[in-house]
């Protein structure tokens, strides 16, 4: 389990390094906005799922 988490973390770090090297400043800014919106949506979905679980679970 720990090995799988470390592999995922390594893959994300490698992807971040590639994005940092290959994309321009404007593209990075746009990607940052997309990631922020996606993180907000995922957080809202997680909270909603927990509420549903606690209410009807």
Main sheet makeup: none
Class derived from helix and strand content: mainly alpha
Report, as a whole number of angstroms, the end-to-end distance. Answer: 27 Å
For the residues shown, what is the average pLDDT? 90
Low-pLDDT stretches are none
Number of E-type strands: 0
The helix/strand order is HH
Beta percentage is under 5%
Helix content: over 70%
Instruction: Please count the helical segments.
Output: 2
The global form is flat
From the alpha carbons, calculate the radius of gyration and give it in angstroms.
Answer: 16 Å
What does this structure look like?
93% of the residues lie in helices and 0% in strands. With 57 residues, the chain is an all-alpha fold. The longest helix is centred in the C-terminal third of the chain and has 32 residues, at 25-56. The model has no long low-confidence stretch (mean pLDDT 90).
Provide a short characterization of the protein structure.
The chain is mainly alpha-helical. The chain has helices at residues 2-22, 25-56.
Key terms for this structure?
57 residues; mainly alpha; 2 helices; flat
Topology overview:
Elements: H1 2-22, H2 25-56
């Amino acid at each position: 389990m720990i090995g799988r988490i470390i592999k995922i973390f390594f893959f994300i770090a490698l992807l971040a390094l590639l994005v940092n090297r290959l994309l321009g400043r404007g593209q990075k800014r746009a990607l940052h906005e997309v990631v922020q919106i996606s993180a907000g949506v995922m957080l809202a979905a997680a909270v909603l799922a927990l509420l549903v679980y606690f209410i009807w679970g």
